[in-house]
Structure formats: C-alpha cells, structure tokens
Amino acid sequence: MEELSRALASSFSVSEDLNSTAAPHPRLSQYKSKFSSLEQSEPRQRLLELQKSKRLDYVNHARRLAEDDWTGMESEEEDKKDDEEMDIDTVEKLPKRYANQPLIAKLLAVPVLHISWKGNHMLCGPL
User: Fold this and answer.
1) Most Cβ neighbours (<10 Å): which of 12, 16, 29, 60?
2) Is 125 within 8 Å of 114 (Cβ atoms)?
3) Residue-range definition of the domain harbouring residue 54
C-alpha cells in the first residue's frame, strides 16, 4: 500500500498552471492539426493559375471566332492531342433508370375496406 501511495505521489502533479481552463487540451493536437497559411496558399495559387489560363484560352477562342483567324490553331490541337494521351480515362456514370419516371399508382393504392360509421366509432370489415 505504501508503494502505491509513493508511486501515485511521484506521478501526479496538481497545480493551477497545468489545469487552467485557458490552456489548450493536451490531446487537441491529436484531433485537429493546425495548418499554416502557406500550406493553404499553395493549392489556392494553383487554382487561381488554372482559372487564369482557362479564362485566357476562352478569350483567345472568342477572339479567333470574332476575327475568323485560325492561324496557329493546328499547333495547339497537336499539343492537346499529346496531352490527351497522358490523361486518365474517366469512368462514365451509369444512367439513373428511374429518374423522371412516374410512380405506378397501383403499387401505392390502399386496399378498399368497408367502412361504416356509427356514432364516434368506426367499424371496418371486408367487402
């Protein structure tokens, strides 16, 4: 018993500093890892660059349509063909079989019961 009390006395430390409510929970880091703003800015920067390039491609395409100038377009098509070889094939979604189809009313019909009312009571029976 004395060994147990000595072990508990040496392992437990109670002080106001360690147990304050303002201190973060010791296991908080296991559940929520904090990300720095640098890690978040990299994907955002990539997304902004992608948006910028797509917008530029769209504007150039619209400009070519307006001016009917398609010179240099062949080289871009060849580049796209090279890029397509490296792309991964995407799996097409299966069509929804029952989408936009009416539900058959027969399946939802409630069986007809012979109902007669007498006073405040309802009596049900077969036809």
Assistant:
1) 60
2) yes
3) 37-68
Which of 23 and 2 is assigned the larger pLDDT? Answer: 2
Percent with pLDDT over 90 in the chain: 10
Assess if residue 86 is contained within a domain. no
Note the Cα 45 to chain centre separation in Å: 21
Q: Does 20 reside within a domain?
A: no
Q: Rg of the Cα trace of the chain?
A: 36
122 in helix, strand or coil?
A: strand
Residue 55 Cα to chain centre, angstroms: 25
Global pTM value: 0.31
Give every CB contact of residue 70 below 8 A, 6+ residues apart in sequence.
Answer: 64
Residue 41 CA to residue 38 CA, distance in Å, equals: 5
